[in-house]
């Protein structure tokens, strides 16, 4: 059963943004999550990046907040500055026709700009736990009007040692808030957090296999480090390939591999 975006009863301004981004139908997590969040439920989502989880929580938030009200109405907590930036950019795009003001806050950036933006009024804050806590302590970030909190990549935040910061932040928000938690895995520490801070959460699990397109065949080869280059060139020789994308772990390794391949007649 596929759901259409039109069945999700999203605001026309949100539909316009989503359509312009080229989204033709909701992903499984969006079909499952959007109605639950619009109904006010707490949601525990087991899903990785690539499933469309950002729009799954961002669209209901954008639908329910009142743009320009003044105080911060939604808070999204993310483990890294990169994820916080990515999420705030996505929210900005989904909310562009609703005049939503979104601010990303993370460490390593001067406080001044973040504080003055908060003073002017922001609807949604996306940030990392440490900087969020600093801004709360400096009385620049007031969470007393928060309606929805999202914990994105909660397992990552826990393994980075942010659990106490997250609990302190959650305790500053109203008890009747809506909470959505995303995690690729659900270890006991995550379940404890959910038990303590969520109300009757609805669970949504997006199986890993739904992450990739059925037309893609996946294989892996276990080889010794010293044999990797030979194995790769062998693959190029035996498989019919016109082009390839190779991901390597380090910048140095990437450059070396490209040189070795070029030398062997595979321009990279
Ligand atoms: P996420 O899992 O939120 O990081 O999203 C992964 C990618 O899927 C992003 O590039 C989104 O722009 C894209 N995306 C999200 N929802 C949809 C959709 N319904 N249709 C097509 N692309 C989507």
Count the strands?
7
Number of helices: 11
Distance from first to last alpha carbon = 43 Å
CATH superfamily of the largest domain: P-loop containing nucleotide triphosphate hydrolases
Bound molecules: adenosine monophosphate
Q: What's the arrangement of strands in the largest beta sheet?
A: 3-4-2-5-6-1-7
Gyration radius from CA atoms, angstroms: 22 Å
Order of helices and strands: HHEHEHEHEHEHHEHEHH
CATH class descriptor name of the largest domain: Alpha Beta
Q: State the low-pLDDT regions, or none.
A: none
Q: Report the average pLDDT across residues.
A: 92
CATH architecture field of the largest domain: 3-Layer(aba) Sandwich
Question: How many separate domains?
Answer: 2
| Main beta-sheet strand count, sense and barrel state | 7 strands, parallel
Provide the structure class.
Answer: alpha/beta
Task: Describe this structure as you would to a colleague.
- With 268 residues, the chain is α/β, with parallel strands linked by helices.
- It has 2 domains: 5-205, 3-Layer(aba) Sandwich (Rossmann fold); 225-263, no CATH class.
- Helices cover 43% and strands 11% of the residues.
- It contains 11 helices and 7 strands.
- It has helices spanning 12-20, 28-38, 53-64, 81-94, 111-120, 129-137, 154-159, 163-171, 188-197, 228-238, 251-263; strands spanning 43-46, 74-77, 102-105, 124-127, 148-151, 178-183, 202-205.
- Strands 3-4-2-5-6-1-7 form a 7-stranded parallel β-sheet, sandwiched between helices.
- The model has no long low-confidence stretch (mean pLDDT 92).
